[in-house]
Each structure stands twice: as structure tokens, then as C-alpha cells.
Amino acid sequence: MFSHIFLGVSDFERALAFYQPLLASLGLAQRFCERQRPWAGWQSPGVARPLLLIGHPFDGQAAQPGNGPMTALLADSRAVVDQAYALALAHGGRCEGAPGLRPDYHAHYYGAYFRDPDGNKLCVVCHTPPDTPPTETGRA
Questions:
Q1: What is the rounded distance in angstroms from the CA atom of residue 13 to the CA atom of residue 34?
Q2: CA separation for the pair 115, 22 (Å, rounded)
Q3: What is the dihedral of CA 95, 18, 118, 90, to 10 degrees?
Q4: Which of 18, 62, 65, 103 has the greatest CB tally within 10 Å of its CB?
């Protein structure tokens, strides 16, 4: 469905310090990092798309988070959601909703919400019951 998602950041090195451990905890591989541009991208191992990209906005204006947009990242387990949330907060993220079940979405929706240091809203979510092996999560 998606080719890529680009998140604008104002301080690239600060954003890189936030996203590298967060995305590694989700099993995503860094595809590239060009500090001189600056931008970086991650992907699922062995899959060219979709990409999650961070960088300075192309138009040269300041990065500004929106009110309403959110990027949700898939986790293989509830433990990975917990780990990613803790990493996000340890690297400058702000809580928007601690890890937990959200049964109003569906019975097995386990998610955590936070903002990156630039204010971009993110979610890390697992959609499967706690006893489901990671290979059965529906991750492509």
C-alpha cells in the first residue's frame, strides 16, 4: 500500500539518535544514512519497500508536526511494544499513551503512543494474542 513515509525533523542527529534504536528494536534495517543531505531510511530486511524516512523537509522550511497525522509501526509481540516504548522515552520521546490493550479497536490491539523529539506522533502496535509466534503476525 505504501511506498514510503517521510517524517520531517529539525535536528537530524537528535532524530537519528531517537530512531536508530527504536527501529532496530522493531527489526527494521537501516537502508541508508546521508548526514550531508540530511536524511536516513529504514526497511524490513529483504524488502525494498515500504521505507520509513527521516530528514529535513525538502522545501527548506522548519519541520512541523501535524495535529492528527500518526505513523503506526508494527511489532511482532507485546514485549516488543513495551521495549520500543521504553527506548522512545529514553531517547527523548514524550508519552502519548502507555503500552496496553485497546479493546475498543479490537480484542488483541496492544499499542503504545509517543511523540519523537520533533513532535511527530508515533504508535507501536501488536495485533496478535500474546501466545502467537512472531512468524504468524502477518508481517510481510
A1: 11
A2: 12
A3: 30
A4: 18
